[in-house]
Amino acid sequence: MTRVAVSSDLLRWARERAGLPIEDLIGRFPKLAAWERGELSPTFNQLESFAKATHVPFGYLFLPEPPDLPMPIPDFRTLGNRQPGAVSPDLLDTIYAMQRRQAWLREERLDGDAEPLAFVGSARLSDDPGAVGREMRRLLGLGDGWTTRVRTWQEAVSALRAAIEEQGIIAVINGIVGNDTHRRLNVEEFRGFALTDDLAPLVFVNSADAKSAQMFTLAHELAHLWLGAEGAGLSGFPGIFPDGGRVETFCDRAAAEFLVPAAELRALWPQVKRDASPFESLASAFKVSPIVSGRRAMDLGLTDRAAFFDFYDAYVQREKRQKTQGVGGGSFYNNQNLRVGRLFALQVMRAAKEGRIGFKDAYDLTGLHGGTFQEYASRLGVDLP
DNA sequence: TGCTTCTCTTCGGGAAATGA
DNA sequence: TCATTTCCCGAAGAGAAGCA
């Protein structure tokens, strides 16, 4: 059998980049230690399997030395204002997949003589973020009190996502890489990102996060699209302790006004301020995290800092305790409306049906194959040949 | 002996339905 | 209203059989 001469440094780099200790791979690759010491070379098939296991493009393993992979986009929201260090393969693969979708949709819309979306890049950092938040709300057609008319956070996220798609924005909410349930996206690493483009803007939200937090991330990423190129270039920030730079602070403020308008909050405050947990009452009404509603109440001078930070500390501790509890179940095809994006999936399926795109490309863009792709198309009302 | 290929099983994601 | 269960898939892993 043919063995492949591969740099032991590259093998070690691939394994460490995937965050896998050698013990985790030794079962599948018993000679891995010898490969990394340069005492033995893997076969072609073994190297292919190794690339798959470490989520490294196969060709990278033939480079003379480990590549320096730059972050493909500058903005992404992280937890706790942490600056991103080494970027995980899961995040990188997610960004690359979203960039492929965006590039395809941009070409598709260019071919269809689509007009650029006027709201992309319509705001400036010198603008009032509150006014931008109100404009975002107006364009999406979300009237006063819309969140009180939906029952759950789940419905609120779905309604917001649908309103975003109506404006021609690809909105993807996913907690894993594609449909690979073995590759969960780490919310400690990022909460979401925006890919600005005036023909095919895209927002991505990490659904491993709490529903209430997803609402804020959606709104935050939306604000990035409003800033356009001016909003790119800085790292993400969760919005509680604002030192994440001008752009992040701007987007957080616009998102806060978008989700919790000052006028509505002031009107509601007298009714909830004597509740056992007023921030939770506000959160339930506006379908945002209690942290966001509490912070908003503090910024508007409705409550003092001590009350907010007491609540914040207790809430964070409670979230940590509850984090391990999860529920299973679900419907695969319903999930695709979030993972692929209903609007995007429909466009790809129509393009495949009309022969403007090959089925292989359609499979690649949606992450679905063969019968699964056909079944999802059928459920969306597209009859494929 | 070491490796490849194939088949079968297990895992785990989440919206919606159902039950308490 | 909240908790639990259902459904369906792709990916990964284990094991068996065969090959060099």
Automatic annotation (TrEMBL):
GO MF annotation terms: DNA binding
Entries under PANTHER family matching the protein: ANTITOXIN HIGA1, BLL0069 PROTEIN
Domain (HTH cro/C1-type): residue spans on this chain: 32-61
Pfam families from the UniProt entry: Peptidase_M78
Source organism superkingdom: Bacteria
Family: Belongs to the short-chain fatty acyl-CoA assimilation regulator (ScfR) family.
Coiled-coil blocks: none
Name of this chain's protein: Putative Zn peptidase
